[in-house]
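Morning F.,

Quick status update on the modeling queue. The single chain you submitted on Monday has been processed. Sequence for confirmation:
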Amino acid sequence: MTVKIKDVAKAANVSIATVSYVLNDSAPVSDETRARVLEAIRKLNYRPNSTARNLKANETRLMGYAWHTTEPGQMNAILDRFVYQTARSAEAHGYHILTFATAPHDPSQAFDELVRTSRVDGFILAETDNPRLLRHLLALNFPFVAFGRADSEWDFLYVDVDVHAGIRMAVQHLLTLGHQRIGCIAWPSTSHNGEIRLAGYMDTMRAAGIEPCAEWVVRVRNTIDDGFRATNRLLHMPEANRPTALVSLSDVMALGAMSCIEALGLRIGSDVAVTGFDDDPMSAYLHPALTTLHQPIDLIANRVIEMLVAAIAGQPIAERHVLVEPELMVRTSSDPSLPPSHPVLLSHDDPENAEEPNHTA
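C-alpha cells below.
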C-alpha cells in the first residue's frame, strides 16, 4: 500500500499543509510539530513524490554540466575531480548533476534544448574560451556559474584559481634558487586562462629586473608531446642563452618537458629545473617528483554550487567573481636538495610495518 501525505498528516495529527511545510522547509513550524511530522514519516516509511513536487515548484532539481573535452589520448584529472565534487556538493543542496555532450561546431544547441524543455534549473560551465557560447548563455538570461574566467567584457558568475599569483610563486621560487634564465612553456594565445598565466611569468621576471627574450616563451598545445617538443626547442638554444629552468603552464606539458630533459641526457632539477601547474595526482609520484601549483578543486566546486543554488533561487550574490589562491608544492624537479616526496612502499613480506592502502582520492 502506498503511503500518502494525508496518511502522514493523520499520524502526526497535523494538516497536510503542515507536512508540506516540513518537507519543503517553506514556512515556520515549531520544533515539536516538526519532530512529530518527521517521526510519522519515519514510522510510515513515507517517500515524497519528487517528480510531482518538482513540477509543482517549477523545478527539476537538476544542474546541467557540459562534459569537458580533452586532447585525444590525454586525461584531465583536475576537471574529473571537479565534476565528482560538484556532484557531491549538489546532492548536499538537494540537486543532481545532468551531464551532456555538445556539438563542437555549435555547443549552444545542447544548452538551448535543455532550457527549452525545462530539464535543468541552471548550468555549470567549465570551459570559458568560447565567446560565442558565453554571449549566447548571457542572452538566454538563464542561471549559470563557471569554473574559470573570460575576457573582462563578459560579466558572469565564476569561481577561478588566481593563476597569475600561482605562476608568480613558481617563478619567485626559481629565482630564489638562483635561476635567471627561466623559460616558459605556454598555451596558444586563444586561451584566456593561459594568457593570465603567461602574464604572471612575464610580470614576475620583469619585477626581478629580467626581460625575458622572445625565444624563452614557446606556445604549444596542452599535450605531453607538445611539452616535449617545446622543451627540445628551448634546450637547443645556444648554451649562453639556454634556460636553466622551465615554467610549464600545466602538469601535462611539464611531464613532456621532464621526458625531454632525460632524453637529452640532462638531470631534472640539477641541470634544468621544472615546475608545473595543477598538482595532478601523478605529480608526486614522478621521478623526480614535480614541483607544481595545487588547485583547491573541492573548495572551488563547493563555491560554484553555492553560487548556482543562490542564482537559481534568485537570491542576491554579493561576490560575483571569486578567486582562490593555489599552493606551491615544492618538490625535487626544481630543488634536488629536497628528500624524495613520494611515499615509500613497504614490502608485502613485512606485515608488521605494512600500512593499509589509502583508497581515498
